[in-house]
Write a structure and sequence with these properties.
By secondary structure, the chain is α/β, with parallel strands linked by helices. Helix content is 44%, strand content 12%. The strands form two sheets. The protein has an eight-stranded mixed beta sheet, sandwiched between helices. The protein has a three-stranded antiparallel beta sheet with strand order 1-2-3, with no helix packed on it. The relative contact order is 0.11.
Length: 396
């Protein structure tokens, strides 16, 4: 009886082992399994693909990534890919032809003559002077982010050419930029900024304050500003000194808010005082700063003291990023070591630009930018480029 029971149990076990063997052959028909002593490594080998799993990415995944992970470097090496190129491969450096035949037409001189004489087959490009001018244009016309930018132009001493510098700076910016630039005269003692351009309106900052609620768009605001041939817009101060004294902090904020709607860069001619009520909102809004200094001993000292006052009143960062316009056309300049003045200011601010003497500026009348001396225009453009570079770093 016991022998019969053992024979039945043995037959059942044989049938189970045979079924397990058949099942194993069914699942492993596509390949073989190599089991190693390590439990973290299993290698499956088939006729078509080799897959190795070692706790990470498989060889198949790596191969797929190498074939579909497009890059410009791979393309230059001539690597082939098993998938169509994505749109990201159509980069400017790949598609744009920068060879001589596609350079911009030379602007003038022998290079332009040769270009057309050779039926456009020989293009030497622009000369160094033109390339430098275009580079400065690019610096001035840089895109500014973060809304309207305010740049006060100030000093503690009158008669050093602050209004002239404001006008030159605004004209240089307006000529090169595609957006709008305005200069606001906030001088409390009857400013003369509007007299530096061809006056086309009698409206002043006071009119802007009084009509603020009725201004419905740029066309309404534009009727209250004068426009220069360079596209610079100028908003005049009150011609009556008694009225200009009434132009206070609240009034300036109204004008500044209005201008910020329609202009990208807002220059403010601040007058000679730095403690009048308009100065506080002017500095609070400032994204950049231009300090004007004359070429005499007292003018340079007062300009430096202006920086000291600003640092003492919490505007140290603004001072370090500011630019000094050194007007070399003031009295006493010929007796002073301008290089020493320049070295002093360079130790305190970001940059210094010398404004040379120009008879067209000394006359104190309307400034026509294209009639200025070449050195004067270049100085104004360099000042504009430096100011814009500072504004481009400002995100607030």
């Amino acid at each position: 009886m016991a022998d019969k029971s053992e024979r039945g149990f043995s037959r059942r076990r044989n049938r189970e082992e045979q079924a397990a063997a058949e099942l194993t052959e069914t699942f492993l028909d596509a390949g073989t399994v190599d089991l190693t002593p390590s439990t973290s490594s299993i290698k499956v080998v088939t006729e078509s693909t080799s897959i190795v799993t070692t706790g990470g990415a498989s060889e198949t995944d790596t191969l797929a990534n190498s074939q579909t992970g497009y890059s410009r470097r791979d393309s230059l090496r001539g690597d082939a890919f098993d998938q169509p190129e994505p749109a990201a491969m159509l980069t400017a450096d790949r598609l744009i032809d920068l060879s001589a035949k596609n350079r911009p037409t030379p602007e003038s001189g022998f290079r332009r003559f040769l270009y057309f004489l050779s039926l456009k087959s020989i293009n030497l490009g622009d000369n160094l002077r033109v390339r430098e001018r275009k580079a400065t244009d690019a610096r001035i016309s840089a895109v500014l982010e973060g809304g309207a930018k305010f740049v006060p132009v100030l000093t503690r001493k009158g008669g050093v050419g602050k209004t002239t510098v404001t006008t030159l700076l605004g004209m240089a910016m307006a000529l090169a930029r595609e957006d709008r630039v305005i200069a606001i005269d906030a001088n409390p003692d009857r400013g003369t900024l509007a007299e530096r351009v061809s006056k086309s309106t009698r409206f002043t900052v006071r009119d802007v304050v009084n009509r603020a609620a009725a201004v419905d768009g740029f066309s309404d605001f534009a009727t209250m500003v004068s426009r220069d041939a360079t596209r610079l817009h100028v908003l005049a101060s009150d011609s009556d000194p008694m009225l200009s004294e009434a132009f206070d902090e609240g009034d300036y904020n109204v004008v500044a808010d209005m201008a910020a709607r329609y202009y990208t860069i807002i220059l403010t001619d601040c007058g000679t005082g730095i403690v009048h009520s308009v100065m506080r909102p002017t500095l609070q809004r400032a994204n950049g700063l231009v300090i004007v200094s004359g070429g005499s001993v007292d003018e340079a000292r007062l300009a430096s003291e202006t920086l000291t006052w600003l640092e003492a009143n919490g505007y140290g960062d603004l001072v370090r990023q500011s630019v000094v316009a050194l007007n070399t056309a003031t009295q006493g300049t010929n007796l002073v070591k301008l290089d020493e003045i320049e070295a002093h200011f360079k130790s305190r601010v970001r940059a210094v630009v010398k404004i040379p003497y120009d008879p067209a500026l000394a006359a104190g009348s309307v400034i026509k930018f294209d009639q200025l001396h070449k050195n004067t225009r270049e100085a104004a453009r360099e000042l504009a480029a430096l100011v814009v570079e500072g504004l481009a770093k400002t995100k607030y």
